Amino acid sequence: MSASSAPTIPSHRSALQLRPLALAISLMLGAGLAHAADAPDEDSTLPVITVTGAHEDAYTTRKSASASKLDLSLRETPQSVSVVTRAQMDDFRLDNVNKVLAQTTGVTVEAVETDRTYYTARGYDITNFQYDGVGIPFIFGNVMGDLDTAIYDRVDVVRGANGLISSTGNPSATINFVRKRPTEGLAASAALTLGSWSNRRLDADVSTPLSADGKVSARFVAAHQEGDSYLDRYSPSKDIAYAVVEAKLTNDTTLTAGHTYQKTRAKGGMWGALPMYYSDGTQTSYPISTSTSADWSRWNTETNSTFAELEHRFNADWSVKSTLTYTKANSNSQLFYVYGSPDRATGDGLFSYPSKYNSSNEQSLADISAKGKFTLGGRQHDLTFGASWSESKLHDVSYYGQGIGTALPNGTAFDGSYPLPTFDASTDGSAYSDKRKNAFVAARFNLADNTKLLAGVNAAKVDGTGESYGVAKSKSQSDTTPYVGLVYDINRYVSAYGSYAEIFNPQSETDANRQTLDAATGKSMELGVKGELFDGRLNLSGAVFKIRQQNVAEAAGTTADFKTIYQGVDSESKGYELEASGELARGWQASAGYAQLRIKGNDGNDARTFIPRKQFHVSTTYLVPAVPKLKVGANLTWQDEIHLTVSDAVTLRQGAYAQLGLMASYDLTKNVSLSLNLNNVTDKKHLTSLYWDQSLYAAGRNGSATLSWKY
């Protein structure tokens, strides 16, 4: 079979990532030195900086600006917000973004490949990632590499259309990563982790004053991880480094600058995944370790991101903050894709598609916002406004290998034996840019002692030029989207709220007439009740939502020269979510959530059936009163059945399944503790996703043992 007659395959830019839960027995050694100069007596509480950062031992947060740029409690925010704190990440070893989001209410991690991932919420792809409340949508719609969580204090997830500070994207969710910052005084820690499949991890975290008066301080975080995996031939490794310096120029002005570096190397990384159906239409099944990678496959990514932040407080009520960010992400790979439908008896029917791929993605961002208070009608209200500008540039090239279409009989698709070809059969690629400008204004009106109205608008303009794999990426689209939310305090503990937000998503896909599709538009409506108990240590919420998305680009066939054509489709998602996070009782922390939804397409039938309709998760830890130094815990995730209809004759299915994890930690001394983690206790084999008609199986039973020391 020639390259020109090969079926459509996932592009380098739209593949998925598998982030397996590693089967690990790990040993972690941490060292901490906190506020040595002002150490309190032994009976007082000593704040300690561990390898994962300064934190309270809590599973919730008291304030979040992720939904509006206003520092509001979760109860005061008229939208669903989930928080994964540093404490929860530490307790359950959530050391990458996939693991964090898998423990978040209503979020699905679509992991099909080894080194790229899609995420969904409320039925739609998540395309907005932010850092400290500032960010722009993905260029590709997916995450490349293994994003580590060592540098974050917490992760906020705002579900629905975050119309105030994310005016473009899908009405799914916005993920806001809150980075670690310098702490007061000197603090340091280190950690060493040893695991199964020869996994090793080294962490370090240091915060220190740089001036005698403490007005200049810095924090440094570094991590290195390497090892093998449960997949044949797959050996990932990564290095992470983060440095941030904070200088108080005056009592009211603070300048912060930081840089993040991450390099991920994956030997034996997969492009695409396992063929999921035989030539007779029945579903395939493979050993859990099966991989389609070749011995020479590799996938390396490197990201450098620098930011500068200047914040000035004019008085007790008003402040302004400006941020500049520059990020450059490079990727280089040699990959082996396998396509076709094997014969059930012989295994024949699979073919080769080797390719080499390099890319460079640069993103520049400028953001400025102000917030403060004003008086109107005898009451004090909140106001925030701002503007941002961003530019993303992508250059990539694919070098296609000799031998595309070579038959792979007798299991050679899975043994890694395909020889390294020369990558000179042909080339193709992309060169395009994306510019976005937006401005927003919002006010939180104090209508009555128990009633607050949050209202605002966001105006955005997006321009794109260039082409990708022979298809024009030109677009020039703009829109103004409103946001309104009302919160009514039923009593001092419980509030009811409603919100409405719109969002628009510029598109460059073309239809059968080679005309660029108009922007997709969406709206999100939500009603809910929130509770705040135990002085804010426990947050409860329940919400019903309805989302409509119009004119979303969907593949509708190919042209004679194998270019994909698109059509705009409409859909509707509705459902409800329940969540609890924080301290249920003294020493008992928990984060739990249940989400249920239904998605309908143009024809009124179920759409995007690869997304589970019902999901549940819970993570909880308990300090045993009879043994004060012992903490025990468990986490559980469950989802119902999913399926993907490939054709009238082929439907792929993954039944409902649950994964159980257990943990325990014990303070051996004041400075030394031992913790044990065991994941997927029931050793349930299941597919990681049905986002495509190829997939992988999840790792089997896995665990870790951690020994830490801090002072």
Annotation field: number of helices: 2
Q: Name the quaternary structure.
A: single chain
Number of strands: 35
Task: List unreliable stretches of 5+ residues.
Answer: 1-55
Structural class by secondary-structure content = mainly beta
Shape: globular
**What percentage of amino acids are in beta strands?**
over 45%
Radius of gyration: 25 Å
Q: What does the main sheet amount to?
A: 23 strands, antiparallel
Distance from N terminus to C terminus (CA atoms, Å) equals 65 Å
Mean pLDDT figure: 87
Helix content: under 10%
Short description:
The protein has 711 residues and is an all-beta fold. It has helices at residues 86-91, 97-102, and strands at residues 81-85, 107-110, 116-121, 124-125, 128-131, 143-144, 152-159, 173-179, 187-194, 200-209, 216-226, 235-248, 253-267, 274-275, 298-313, 319-340, 350-376, 379-400, 426-448, 451-468, 471-472, 475-489, 494-505, 520-533, 538-558, 564-585, 588-600, 614-623, 630-639, 642-647, 650-654, 657-667, 672-679, 694-695, 702-709. It has a 23-stranded antiparallel β-sheet that branches. It has a four-stranded mixed β-sheet with strand order 1-7-8-5.
Blueprint (SSEs and pairs):
Blueprint (H helix, E strand, L loop, with lengths): L80 E5 H6 L5 H6 L4 E4 L5 E6 L2 E2 L2 E4 L11 E2 L7 E8 L13 E7 L7 E8 L5 E10 L6 E11 L8 E14 L4 E15 L6 E2 L22 E16 L5 E22 L9 E27 L2 E22 L25 E23 L2 E18 L2 E2 L2 E15 L4 E12 L14 E14 L4 E21 L5 E22 L2 E13 L13 E10 L6 E10 L2 E6 L2 E5 L2 E11 L4 E8 L14 E2 L6 E8 L2
Parallel strand pairs: 5-8
Antiparallel strand pairs: 1-7, 2-3, 3-4, 3-6, 7-8, 9-10, 10-11, 11-12, 12-13, 13-15, 14-34, 15-16, 16-17, 17-18, 18-19, 19-20, 20-21, 20-22, 22-23, 23-24, 24-25, 25-26, 26-27, 27-28, 28-29, 29-32, 30-31, 32-33, 33-35
